[in-house]
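debug: dumping io for the single-chain case to check the tokenizer round-trip. Nothing else runs in this session.
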Amino acid sequence: MTFPERYSSLPEYAFPRLRSLLDAHQPGGEVMHMTIGEPKHPFPEWVTQVIADHTEEFGLYPPNDGSPELLAVIAGWLERRYGVRLDPTRQIMALNGTREGLFNTLIALCPEMTARGERPVVLIPNPFYQVYAVAAVTVGAEPVFLPATAENGFLPDYSQLSPDVLNRTEVAYICSPSNPQGAVADRDYWASLIALAEKHDFKIFADECYSEIYRDTPPPGALEVASEGGADPERVVAFHSLSKRSNLPGLRSGFVAGGPESIRRVRQLRAYAGAPLPLPLQRVAERAWADEVHVAASRKLYQEKYALADKVFEGVEGYNAPNAGFFLWLPVKDGEKAAMKLWTETGVRVLPGAYLSRDVNGKNPGKGYIRVALVAPKQEMQHGLEKIRDCLFK
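debug: decoded output
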């Protein structure tokens, strides 16, 4: 019996890899999980009532593209948030979690070969959300990883690539606000990247799932900047989610938005291979995208956590206060050794940065970092951060 080899070079996924590293060792204190970006703030109190009010719709096959009501509400949110008007019937599609969208959209939109008959390239920031790489492998593209480090503001500079690579590029992934560093692509960054994409004719996949968690100023969006600059409507494909925005990771509700032809092709693929969101859950999503009160309340809690983290790590060399998102990207000598030391001496569990990045030319930009999730209740989070500081930085 034979099996496909396309995934044989993939490293073990981050969390099984962490279990292999730590679980043979006893924790050095009360166990505190600060690894997974699973929001712990309360989700809106009306969620269960909306589901209860629509339980009969579990007896219906849900519309694969998203209910007309949900698509209209998402279009309204995009216009309020970014000033961008999209046709909900042609430019937006509901997703069963944004991760599957980031994966399936590349399958739908990345050509098998470039116009010159060459192997396509997919550009990926390093560190990165791991689905980007497995999507590139699936379509047979060459993944090219660009470092996102303190030196470049934790955002990759794709313009440094050779014209040969850029001319073979079909898709560039960008996460803003970024996971894990919390960096925000400003208007100039988006405009420069869009101009580069226009010049070399590639698409930008803008992963903006952390867009509503920020310190002070709402991050600009890729669709917004593309519209302002008059870019090709098919140039940018944006992804959003209710997981972080509304503290609803278990709802598995997100959306993809872009040009009409891009969305037509995504819909075509997902009509065969997609798993639509059950209608009662689409009803929850409808209300969630229409409501900003719960989003503002959750954001305020994160802003309080930013202030606590800044206080705890004040004076720590290399500490970069995140502008957005809910992770700390803390500099250490070796991420694996730091994670082991924390676990065996304090019971705090964090993720080595190297598990979120790849070795390129013998260098791994995540090796000297740990990722810490700021999702626990504030007092518990502060206690964990103080343990990290005292164990690793004193």
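debug: round-trip ok. The first helix runs from residue 14 to 22.
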